Model the fold of this input.
Amino acid sequence: MSAYVIRHDWSYEEAYALYHQPFMDLVWQSQQIHRAVFTPNSIQVCTLQNIKVGGCPEDCHWCGQSIYHSTGVENEPLADLDEVIQSAKDAKANGASRYCLAASWRGPTDRNLNKVIEMVKAIKALGLETCITLGKLRPEQAQALKEAGLDYYNHNLETSENHFKKVSTTRSFSDRLTTLQYVREAGMKVCSGGILGMGETEKDRIELLITLANQPEHPQSVPINQLVRIEGTPLENEAPMDDLSFVRAVALARILMPKAYVRLSGGRRQMSKTMQTLCFMAGANSIHHGPKLLVTQNADMSEDKVLLQELGLTPEPAQLSTASSCSSHTIPLVVKA
Ligand code: SF4
Done:
């Protein structure tokens, strides 16, 4: 019998029971699923570049880029193409197989979208998978991104529907689901996850993962962030999250969405090596590797190199969704001291 099932009808009771089984049983189950789907001891390495910093008109309580919060982050113009290409080359040299772009917009204007499309094409030409997060999309914008060869569109649900309105009043949860629908309908892969530690309950965390898993298709990437408490945001004094609860959530994501890349993203800098290792045991198989994550410091790049070597984890090659002259290559994780 297969170690896993692909389902889109998970009930809260089922997910709760999985989450609350004895810790060793939970991690054993999620690791078995991970090994049934993915190459053991392989890890996806992604790098994120913030191409439009600050000045965001939304009020997300965790975010350092919102105009509503006094975080000292300045509103900057869109990065230029040459800068993005150079950063993507650096990321590839440092072992990345996926290059992600983020812009602090409610949604892109068509003019800005055209500029981003040029960036996507240039990154693809380097043999990297591409992912971008630009906010809300219209269907024709999703289609234009698909035609440009974009592999993934990131749009996190962030938390449960119930908790969402407590941490973002200018955005709606249903709008987020609609954008994910447009991305799927355009034929792109979905990257969608959330942030844990924003004052949500355990029920909210389980519901977030159920909502993701019960989409018509599972997101192909599921970033699980731990809140980085940014000074000047409404969540700056939020209590740190319990480590084992975080690992349980990672394991549940792996069980509910067996084929998704489950990514340790924001908050990894504040995790010990042991904590990250537990998350990998629970089925996380992707990291963001690079100096910064949006406006916060990421985990130290040379420490990443040491950790992956200690664990015997090998970065996996890019898997491009459209034809490319560079569709398969092995990338060493080279990290500058
Ligand atoms: S999370 Fe995104 S949408 Fe929300 S304030 Fe930050 S940049 Fe804007």
Residues 27-311 form a domain with the TIM Barrel fold (CATH 3.20.20.70).
